[in-house]
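Training component of the fellowship. As part of building independent skills, the fellow (R.M.) carried out the full modelling exercise for a liganded target. The chosen ligand was adenosine-5'-diphosphate. The inputs are recorded below so that the supervisory panel can assess the work.
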Amino acid sequence: MNVLFAASEAVPFCKTGGLADVAGDLPKAILAQLPDKRKSRILRFLPKHSLIDPRKFALEKIPGVLKIPVGEKIEEGGVYVCKEGPLWTFFVENEKYFDRPALYGQAGKDFEDNDERFAFFSRAALELCKLIDFVPDIVHCHDWQTGLIPAYLKTVYATDAFFHRTASIFTIHNIAYQGNFHKQSLVLTGLGWSEFTQEKLEFFDQVSFLKAGLTYSDYVTTVSPGYAREIQTTERYGAGMEGILKLREKNLRGILNGIDENTWNPAKDSRIISKFSPRMKDFEWRKKSCKRELQKLCGLGVDNEAPLLSMVARVDPQKGFRMTLEILPKIFDEHPKVQAVILGSGAPDLEKELTALSERFKGRFCYEKGFNDPLAHKIYAGSDIFLMPSEFEPCGLGQMIAMKYGTIPVVTPTGGLLDTVTPKTQESSGGNGFICADISSAALHQTLWKALKTYEDRQEWRTLMKNAMTADFSWKRSAQEYLKLYENASQGKTRAD
Ligand code: ADP
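Fellow's submitted model of the complex:
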């Protein structure tokens, strides 16, 4: 089986959020599950963002130039490849589109030509298959940036013999990001006005790249069973796409994300000062070393016993920053020992409030603005309680990563958070975190208090930490589910012929 993975970001090359983790790790996990590796290939296609260091990844230029129609123009694309074991990643180059200081926008504003940039990339992905003579059985697309690929396969390339056996799968990583543009963008895409209907890619008189992915693909998946259910219900969760998703119910699957247990492993993590694992008798003592290092690094009072809360997230209303900003001052006043560290950047108004709070509670609260992977590792390892009070959460990786480092999550009852966190109950020694009763600052406040109370009981907390650290968040089971879906989609295509 030949699989093409098309995405706009992937670790280790570039990352703004969980999509990069998934596009980085899932192809490898699927490769590991393939029954006959010699008969299967997975290739990954990404834009050649100028933020990707060509030397670090030993990118090789390959001969040939892509000529891609964009509206009335023909835009050219160079091609590079990074050969990393059996997984080769191809990069589509076009300086005008991808030589930018960020991936999608800056200072909370999207780049104005994102429609053109990703229409170009989507069509280039299919042309690149031809250039390197790679006939995909499956094109697996991720988020709105690649939503036009399924549309191209069913229209521009519908009668192209090269793609006659190709089925498409579209994965929603976050339905709130839709790639909706003025309807004139349709001209740039090269798709006809006959596609501009409610059943296809028209969305409130705009062109929606996400909706294109939802309507033209053979299967739609999303990143947790909980989120798959939620997005079909109300506008709050479906962001206006709930109707179209309900129509696609039979071909919609929720497959839970995993995390890469090599990258996120406190026993091997070179970024933390003291490595630890649940098998070590003194793992709590070792984690405390990480805590002291983090406290020093963040200008917090060095204190083994101070409960240290943390967040590592895009600073976006989705992540529950409003509720967090409301309850943190209360918690600091009520509980004289509590400390907190938050790492992230995003919405300027929220960043400002976080900065003001860190000035008010100097020595107890540190807000670190920016994207900082080494610091993220230190926070996961050095803190005690990880806050993830999301308004909605497709899957969420932060809570799973935190658990691997023995940092206990406090989460809201939504999407993938419900699928990954097992609540601690009074009656049993099970559970690996705390789930709020509802999505409100009152519930968050109450649940955080419960967590802080439990933290005082060293034995109970140790059990929670062990449960969290030993939970299975590997990609293995999900990779098997994707593989089954690839087979179904591919057989469906053969049957249709
Ligand atoms: P989302 O995809 O909605 O941003 P997830 O929890 O699914 O949220 O994934 C977020 C990923 O990005 C995690 O790997 C997290 O550690 C990382 N991350 C988020 N913000 C930062 C940051 N400011 N610095 C470093 N890593 C970050």
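The panel noted the following from the submitted structure. The chain has two domains: 2-258+476-496, 283-472. The domain at 283-472 is CATH 3.40.50.2000 (Rossmann fold).
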